[in-house]
Design brief:
alpha/beta; 15 helices
Length: 344
């Protein structure tokens, strides 16, 4: 079986779970533990990536520069990774300083149908001699052939691997297999997968991705991440080792890192809540969970109805303002989510 490259976004996706309030101490503590476990890539930053701290999607407690410097000092073996969405992150203001600090791996991400917007960022990272992966978010929203077309664009721009994100936790194993297989058959570069656990499928979906030819996989300590969380990294590593995949990660030290994360940086372990399930069924970005709960409470509406309406509209990350619009319309009686339509 092939060696699997593991990327750990505990300190990036996990920031969603605490409204982007991870402290410097938390970043330093976990980065050191992940490094000791020989995790290949440790991803750090605001939940929505470099340059995303804002009133709209949430302000970071710690600025990007300070987070990256703190992590860089603790990562002596692991590579330092970042998540970059063009539109949030600019090359001059955000990407250039991050690479100057010592970022090793840049994952340039976009909505799954918008690969065109990643060209300049991918090209710049290649010019700087750093490793660059393309990331297609909300991958449930395109059929496999269309995903492969978008991924191929990223390959032509210079991406050295393509990661499919199940950002809404909406996919089932056959869905993952068809999507990953389409990319593996089309591309000449590596394919990876990033799971969310809204429907309890994160580990199964990750294995389906590997069985379909993916060689890069994401996971977070205790599943720390948006909504119902990510594939739980320590479980994923144990399962991969059991079935014969090599990761280079020390399982005992990874278990120690996860225990430490639970004690020191994770206030509430992610669980599959009722709204998480609905978010997965509706195909809505997992990072919307806290926003939807807060806004639904304010307008005295059912958050499940909000999720289903957001899903009907095809809302994606960056459109958080529409959560308020939907809640207001539901509160005013202008929208009605009918159970029989939801089930259909």
């Amino acid at each position: 079986m092939p060696n699997i490259l593991v990327s750990d976004p505990t300190l990036r996706d996990g920031n969603h779970a605490v409204a982007h309030q991870l402290t410097l101490e938390s970043i330093e503590t976990y980065a050191a533990a992940a490094d000791a476990a020989h995790v290949p890539i440790v991803e750090v930053g605001h939940g929505n990536g470099l340059g995303a701290s804002s009133m709209q999607v949430g302000q970071s407690l710690v600025p990007d520069r300070e987070m990256l410097i703190a992590a860089r000092e603790k990562l002596t073996q692991s590579k330092l990774g970042i998540h970059v969405i063009p539109g949030f992150a600019t090359i001059e203001k955000d990407l250039r300083p991050a690479i100057d600090i010592g970022v090793d791996v840049v994952r340039v991400a976009c909505h799954c149908s918008e690969a065109d917007i990643t060209q300049r960022h991918i090209a710049y990272v290649r010019e700087r001699g750093k490793q660059v992966f393309g990331v297609l978010m909300m991958s449930h929203m395109l059929e496999p052939t269309r995903l492969a077309e978008e991924a191929l664009k990223m390959e032509t721009y210079g991406a050295e691997a393509i990661i499919l994100m199940d950002s809404a936790g909406a996919l089932l194993p056959p869905d993952v297999s068809s999507r990953v297989s389409a990319l593996v058959e089309t591309l000449h570069i590596s394919v990876g997968f990033h799971a969310h656990n809204n429907l309890g499928m994160a580990i199964a979906n990750s294995l389906a991705a590997l069985e379909s030819g993916a060689t890069i996989i994401d996971g977070t300590a205790r599943g720390f991440g948006a909504g119902a969380g990510n594939a739980q990294l320590e479980v994923l590593i144990a399962v991969m080792h059991r079935v014969g995949y090599e990761t280079g990660i020390d399982l005992y030290k990874m278990l120690d890192a996860a225990d430490l994360a639970e004690r020191a940086i994770i206030p509430v372990i992610p669980t599959i809540k009722s709204t998480s399930i609905v978010s997965g069924l509706a195909g809505v970005f997992s990072g919307f969970a806290k926003h939807v709960d807060r806004v639904s409470s304010k307008f005295h509406v059912d958050p499940r109805d909000v999720f289903f309406e957001l899903g009907r509209r095809g809302i994606v990350a960056g459109q958080e303002d529409l959560i308020i619009e939907v809640a207001q319309a539901l509160s005013a009686g202008e929208l009605r989510i009918e159970a029989e339509k939801v089930e259909a």
